[in-house]
Amino acid sequence: MSDADDALVVFTPSGRRGRVPLGTPVLEAARALGVDIDSVCGGRGLCGRCQVDLCEGSFPKHGVESRAAHLSAKCDTERTWERRRGALCEGRRLSCSARVLGDALIDVPPASQVHRQVVRKRAEVRDIELDPSVRLYFVQVREPDLQVPASDLRRLKEALACEWHFGSLEHDIRVVQQLQEALRRGHWGVTVAIYDNTRIIAVWPGFQAQVYGMAVDVGSTTLAAHLCNLQTGEVVATAGRMNPQIRYGEDLMSRISFIMMNPGGEQAMTRSVREALNELTVELASEAGVPVEAILEATFVGNPIMHSLMFGINPVELGGAPFALATDEAIDGLWATEMDLVIHPNARVYGLPCIAGHVGADTAGAILSETPYLGEELMLLVDVGTNAEIVLGNRHRLLAASSPTGPAFEGAQISCGQRAAPGAIERVRIDPLTLEPRFKVIGCDLWSDEPGFDTAIGPCGVTGVCGSGIIEAIAELFLAGVITPDGVVSGALAEQTPRVVADGRTFSYVLYREAARTLAITQNDIRAIQLAKAALYAGIRLLMERYGTDHVERIRLAGAFGAHIDVQYAMILGLIPDCDLDHVTSAGNAAGTGARIALLSRKARRDIEDVVRRVEKVETATEPHFQAHFVEAMAIPHRSDPFPRLRERVSLPVSDHAASRRGTGRRRRRQRQPG
Amino acid sequence: MSDADDALVVFTPSGRRGRVPLGTPVLEAARALGVDIDSVCGGRGLCGRCQVDLCEGSFPKHGVESRAAHLSAKCDTERTWERRRGALCEGRRLSCSARVLGDALIDVPPASQVHRQVVRKRAEVRDIELDPSVRLYFVQVREPDLQVPASDLRRLKEALACEWHFGSLEHDIRVVQQLQEALRRGHWGVTVAIYDNTRIIAVWPGFQAQVYGMAVDVGSTTLAAHLCNLQTGEVVATAGRMNPQIRYGEDLMSRISFIMMNPGGEQAMTRSVREALNELTVELASEAGVPVEAILEATFVGNPIMHSLMFGINPVELGGAPFALATDEAIDGLWATEMDLVIHPNARVYGLPCIAGHVGADTAGAILSETPYLGEELMLLVDVGTNAEIVLGNRHRLLAASSPTGPAFEGAQISCGQRAAPGAIERVRIDPLTLEPRFKVIGCDLWSDEPGFDTAIGPCGVTGVCGSGIIEAIAELFLAGVITPDGVVSGALAEQTPRVVADGRTFSYVLYREAARTLAITQNDIRAIQLAKAALYAGIRLLMERYGTDHVERIRLAGAFGAHIDVQYAMILGLIPDCDLDHVTSAGNAAGTGARIALLSRKARRDIEDVVRRVEKVETATEPHFQAHFVEAMAIPHRSDPFPRLRERVSLPVSDHAASRRGTGRRRRRQRQPG
């Protein structure tokens, strides 16, 4: 130990260092040196958030001899905390209680850092720096004094200025209404929630340890929500439920129609979605063992119509051209009570901004999650639903459009189509020689040609084909030569295989047949998928043209469709442009992740608000080139685009056009179809 | 007319001048030259607020030859406006329609100035410069365009930036919820209300001409409210009603007791006062022929307990030491719906700040009205109620205190006392020779010794004595020598006059006697008044002592008591310190006037917030000198203060002390009582 009256303290991982007087609490030393250590209780040994590790030994790199004896022994406060919350590991101390008695190397573990990184599972995306809007602060407030009259609020603000260095703070009237009782019940110690470093929005008597937030993805079909601990970024509960608006219409347009036919219907829809969300909230809170009043923030994403209805805006204008949004700004700092939410009444709500009439806050969420705006790489981000939202760009430029794919990719408009649910065929392979299929159904790990499949699929059996199953079936039929690049089922094959059957003037391919049920891919089914994929591809192509490129470097497929689809088949069918297949991946529920990022990071909110403002909106409906792109994209994979990277991996049948140009196509295709 | 392609325009009263191109609309010229002309419609000839007068003639002082022909002839817009709203006077024009065709001298009448002065009736107070928080702006918004997608809100803000030069504006979510319908119903023309130049708080389709505000004084006994046109400052309706909280207790302390005995009682009281206010609001609006939704602002004053209950704050802490206020800041920008008010749901509420636990927002209002903080003169401002609020100071220093006078001045605790109402004696004179009284009652112009009095007072007759009557009665009794400076009714006089009668061990003075009713001033009544006035005077003296003065230059008496009392009698009794009587005047309902000033002027709000922060709060209850001052002040007018200025006007009986010092007092007094 040094003989001096001060000592050297070095903090890792920051590397900050300096001499402090002997006896200084480690937390105070850290603050003096600008080291980031969390604390809610302000160094009173209540919250336990300021834990640090003393590193024992010689550290020539840091020039410090660090010994256990260089920190004071555990004091009563620390022991009391351990009795209440469990013993600290060897070498770990509450930095507010441990005092510096000599040179020391002190490590601040991630959990004790205010601005810690929230680790995301996928390797390709950045971690989030935790920086929530709402933070808790415990303060001990001076008692009122008849001689020096100052209101309770004034003395609270003085305490916050003195202990936490808040300059001038605003406050909600509701805090004033609750303050006096809280101060007296807490014996002048209260915990306050401060929003955005500027405004006191809640107060509790005594020490309140935890604060939560909720990230909500309002889909047309489902509501999905994460409950997060705002101090750790951790997701403590996740839940979903159907959007009860479905009773007003399955898809968005039928809901708009309902409103147009039933004035005031928008209010009923707003009520119903908010009620469902409140049920979901209670479920989340109960799952996590947290009172709903501990939820101080909520963030929302949704397509423009869901977003409008959630925020009480009539969406009828989004039902027709010119598709004017009420607002394309973020909805910021709204009181939860304005939305009738059951969380803390003073909680704040943040809605990510919508981008355009057809490109919603869900797309903004996906952009925030996938961050195309940060890199040099040209990224294509696609979220396929009833409409496909398409984003293309990089840090220099970002374009967005929506393309009316219709619901075919979700199994609607398909004769054998169904939602992705147990019993639905999701994977399909077709033998190019025998033209016989094999497949997998959701809820069963076996392929249909494996032993035990019939029993493994259970009594319900095979019930239909979901979106990814249809994509694979059609792509495999194309690879096997059953359908032409123009999408026509070759009737000639009916002679070679009982799978190809006449269906009026066209032909179908029978994927599955049993006593009760026949599942066939009809010519109409193929047309429906062609129309959908042509719309998607044309939209993408339009953005690429606008950007001035004919090649994208990375493709991210967001949403449930993107998560279930096999990207190779998607590319064979020509849903997406040619790209190195290793660079084509699912982004999961990127919109929901965006909502969660916005919940955890104020900076992310400002980022996405800036980005959305810069996005170039492209209206596919009125773009003259769209129609030409659409027609070209009807072919499988495409009438003119060569897909060279795909061809390196997959041997595609030669297209009619290419074949006729080369004069060999038809023959070659026939050669590949030897029954 | 000049041959040049521009012309000289001179505006009065500002004197601003400059050359503008021929053909420039006068409104545009005015704006270019920084002349203050009002407009809501932005120069579209809708609002008629921009009227100006062309001054015809030669004006060598301004160097201008101004002719009628130097403005363009009336155009269709102007004629349409005249058809709708009535012909403009000779020479008067809509400045948005009249164009400059030659040199012109143009007068902007007060009604056309944005920052016009609101004239106050009393000579001694300053006019208010009109500058309300809420102002209306009409804009024509660009229609939505599929090619250039921008939300309705964004295009609205663009229009506000372009037409009215608003930079970045915030907005209420409710505006977003109403915007799309308003724009379409108004054919893309909407009027918005902008709060504090920073936030859009309401939107209406088309042109909306008028916006109102409400100033409310929440008294323990009565609610009083003014409805004001925020564009002119004019009071368009005034109304009052009982505070229904009276059912929970007559005075403040009994209401606090009710809450302490009935948990939740504060909520019932909050509800009841808000309901009464809403009834009052409907009455005001209907009287003025204005829809309640046109009321976009409300300001409030009240004593700390009324203020708390109105704003939903439990006032129990104000019921006992240390009398801690929940907040001593202004309540600013609160949504009307947070207070369940029936005015426009997006209206904003402003509550003037309370100063200390016993010195409320009503005192802040009185300070704002009387502006002691502006002058050099040392002003004493007193508002007498159950407590007396006392403010002393000038621009250098301001002190405030509350003194517990009790309700005696309001006629309570007085045997013959009653509220100021028809039938109550309000003026009293006592003949020093005969000791016979004469008096006036409220509701009758005749003195009691004038012919016809008995019939003029009507069937109810004389029912009691109100506060000002008691003050006068006791002061006259003192002047007539019936009571000593110590406040004792001289029993010896019972031999000289039947008016003085024994009442147990003390004596009373019979002011009025008829078959049904005897009204007498008892010894107890006099004691009650002495206690009250001693408390008031001691509080004043304490502030004077703290300030370091023994003389005030001006005394302003606020409230109903101040309006009815004869200041000379108040001084004779020693309620207020010696002062030139010409400088002692009633301030009327200064608190309510303060609320109205805060309604009309943003600057006034900032002023009073600053002033209140600077006020030195003096707590009379714990001040050691208070008791000594109190004892001295029990005497009439005072045991030791000489009241030289009063004595110049009124011959006061020599006090016992002074008399005994001079050895002549008793004799002299006896000489003045010759029955």
TrEMBL record, chains A, B:
<dbReference type="InterPro" id="IPR001041">
    <property type="entry name" value="2Fe-2S_ferredoxin-type"/>
</dbReference>
<feature type="compositionally biased region" description="Basic residues">
    <location>
        <begin position="663"/>
        <end position="675"/>
    </location>
</feature>
<dbReference type="InterPro" id="IPR040506">
    <property type="entry name" value="RACo_linker"/>
</dbReference>
<feature type="region of interest" description="Disordered">
    <location>
        <begin position="647"/>
        <end position="675"/>
    </location>
</feature>
<dbReference type="Pfam" id="PF17650">
    <property type="entry name" value="RACo_linker"/>
</dbReference>
<dbReference type="InterPro" id="IPR012675">
    <property type="entry name" value="Beta-grasp_dom_sf"/>
</dbReference>
<feature type="domain" description="2Fe-2S ferredoxin-type">
    <location>
        <begin position="7"/>
        <end position="112"/>
    </location>
</feature>
<dbReference type="Pfam" id="PF14574">
    <property type="entry name" value="RACo_C_ter"/>
</dbReference>
<dbReference type="InterPro" id="IPR027980">
    <property type="entry name" value="RACo_C"/>
</dbReference>
<protein>
    <submittedName>
        <fullName>Uncharacterized 2Fe-2S/4Fe-4S cluster protein (DUF4445 family)</fullName>
    </submittedName>
</protein>
<dbReference type="Pfam" id="PF00111">
    <property type="entry name" value="Fer2"/>
</dbReference>
<dbReference type="InterPro" id="IPR036010">
    <property type="entry name" value="2Fe-2S_ferredoxin-like_sf"/>
</dbReference>
<dbReference type="Pfam" id="PF17651">
    <property type="entry name" value="Raco_middle"/>
</dbReference>
<dbReference type="InterPro" id="IPR041414">
    <property type="entry name" value="Raco-like_middle"/>
</dbReference>
<dbReference type="GO" id="GO:0051536">
    <property type="term" value="F:iron-sulfur cluster binding"/>
</dbReference>
<dbReference type="InterPro" id="IPR042259">
    <property type="entry name" value="Raco-like_middle_sf"/>
</dbReference>
<dbReference type="InterPro" id="IPR052911">
    <property type="entry name" value="Corrinoid_activation_enz"/>
</dbReference>
